[in-house]
Amino acid sequence: MAELLVIRHGQASFGADDYDVLSDLGHQQAEAVGALLREMEWVPDRLVTGTLKRQVDTLSSMGFVDAPEQHAGFNEYDFGDLLKARFKGNIPHPVTADRKTHFRTLRETVFEWQDAAFEGASETYAEFAARVEAARAFACDTGAKRVLVISSGGVIGQMTSVALGAPNRQMMHLNLQIKNTACTRFMFSGAAFSLNEFNATPHFMTPAGAGLLSYS
């Protein structure tokens, strides 16, 4: 069996004009998980990211200098676009200004998206699910034994939910649990694909590492 290790990007810039930029903490988180992999002598023989800057920069800050392969299927869904579609362009101010309201609205909006309860989004949930599956198949179509992917929380939640045969709603429940630079490991061989480990952060399980923990 081969391993597919999917790591969520480091902390991005919540509330900033450009979310798709790692914060200083995000770079530190990436450095920590990269150091852990080297300490464990876990050396990937294939590198893959989405096309988002925060994903590519996470891999770089982990200490990997080789250019990765990229697949846009590993990109996060566009929550800002979903909000505009759900609220018809008039997004309530607390949704963007208050963190608790933001994530509560995120959950509700994704549930409605899954139910096709509003129109106007640039991507349907079915299209999102299909591109994530295409990206997973791309990453597993290889002779490599250790594949490292840098992706995002929604994608990891979707991959995990499908691997478990769980209902669609489970994707979002998992998404909201995933920590920045958390490791989710799958095993694969041919058509076989299964979850081995979810949302692991051993690089935060020290007094010094505990201060690096974040979810967004």
Count of runs of 4 or more consecutive helical residues: 8
CATH class of the largest domain: Alpha Beta
SSE-based structural type: alpha/beta
Listing every helix as H and every strand as E from the N terminus to the C terminus, the arrangement reads: EHEHEHHHHEHHEE
User: Which topology of the largest domain does CATH recognise?
Assistant: Rossmann fold
Total count of domains: 2
CATH architectural arrangement of the largest domain: 3-Layer(aba) Sandwich
Proportion of helical residues? 40-55%
General form: globular
pLDDT below 50 for ≥5 consecutive residues: which ranges?
Answer: none
Summarize it.
The protein has 216 residues and is of the alpha/beta class.
Keywords:
six-stranded mixed beta sheet, 216 residues, alpha/beta
